[in-house]
Amino acid sequence: MKYKHEVFINFRGTDVRHGLLSHVTKDLRRKKIGFYVDDVNLEAGDKISSLFTAIEESQILLVIFSKDYASSKWCLMELEKILECAGKNEQIVVVPVFYKVDPADVRYQRGDYGAAFVEHETREDKVTVQNWKSALTKAADLSGFHYSLNSEMDESKLVDDIVEHISRKLRKSYPGESNDLVGIDKNIEWVNSLMTNNSEEIIKIGIWGMGGIGKTTIAQFVFDKFSHQYEGCYFLENIKDELQTSHLNYLRDEAVSKLLGEENPHITGASKAGSFYMRRLSKKKVLLVLDNVNTPKLLKDFLEPIRFGPGSRVIVTSRQKQVFTSGVLFDEIHHVKKLNFEESLELFCLNAFNASQPKRGFQELSEKAVAFARGNPLALKVFGSYFHSKSEDIWESALDRLKKYPDPDGEILRVLRFSYDELVDTEKMIFLDIAFFFKGDDKDYVISQLDERKLYGVCGMDSLQQKALIDISKDNKIQMHDLIQKMGWQIVRQESSVAGNRSRLNDLEDVRGILNSDRVRSKYTLKIFGIILVFIH
Question: pLDDT tens across 76-96, in order?
Fold first, then answer.
């Protein structure tokens, strides 16, 4: 089940709103975790229905008990609803936080809670009051977090623990979204000391390896884990693709703006590379991630004008090792290795069976399938998704088919193509359109374009997601891995050795050849459905 809100936050008190809550929500935003904050000043009974609906539509229910909590009848009504929803659905998780209040006072209604109930008993009927008391008792028995009034622990540690706990619960609730974390521990051990030490050095960290090996996943995990320790942070995804539609200066200005915490990233006529912005940035400890940098020159041109403050960290991912050995000096370079056999089998099974081990009777078939992916996480994920819910005879047929193509250089693409081959015709058209024209575009816009051609965009996009051929980002953009996009281009090239007989074109030389041909108006060119050419200024 998918929930509208990942976290619902129930609280009362201005001290909580401007203190603990503000820090928790800031970290949730950094981790791209959606939340609904119960901060409505309820005066009318009909307003509680909207909050009840939000509770029902949330996966994690975070309840912050403070000294003022019990004085609010609305909080107590919501708490009843929270416990009711959790009792009906075991996937819903209630996380209590006892903030500067003793859990025993909550459980037994003592202290401020006892005083609050003296007031409630003068205004409410006995059954309602008893229900509220029972709800507090049940909530106090749940496992949660306690930050006492005289606690010596830094409050930031409490925030870290709460947000990390929520992240873990969400990963367990949606195993398909956390599959990429298999084997990640060995790939982040090396970075912990670089990210946590108190050195004022500006440290640059490189992460490199083949496509689909998990570079971006590692960088994102590190970013999510440590970003709260920095005054500013920004993750620039897939800079190589972004440069196809945006100028380098534009992307740099956006990065500087985000690191400075500005709402408007671009100011006409004023580059953020200017001395005013750089002087401000040079005083801040920031974390910047540049994903998928493909040339040393691109990296140097991007970073050269930026002035980082003491203790800042820069993380760069690339498929090209020379990016880290030419021009910009890196303090640490990490080569992401393939998954070992045990890790590969686990990742494959998570996608094929929604479990970490093969289903009974599929052990040998699973091991054979895993061998073809050669430890590449992307291939394992796509291949596992292909075999999901398939019968044994289909497994054996597909594996026999792979044996006939021993060329190792094209093996990963062949594995990825299995999911494409089982698409229906309209889904294949949608896949190729995304590979050529719509990668990075807004999902709703693309669906509208597909629907105009009677391709049933919603159904088709859902099928591509289910087969791990595309992902949808938090900001509703269509994402497709470079290897999968390359497979789409390869499929179209195989339509014909003559460019004019192919359905889609994205190569300048192919287009130039067709335009210069005497047959430009012939039947051959009529087979071209679309052309896309990108010119970098």
Answer: 999 999 999 999 988 899 999
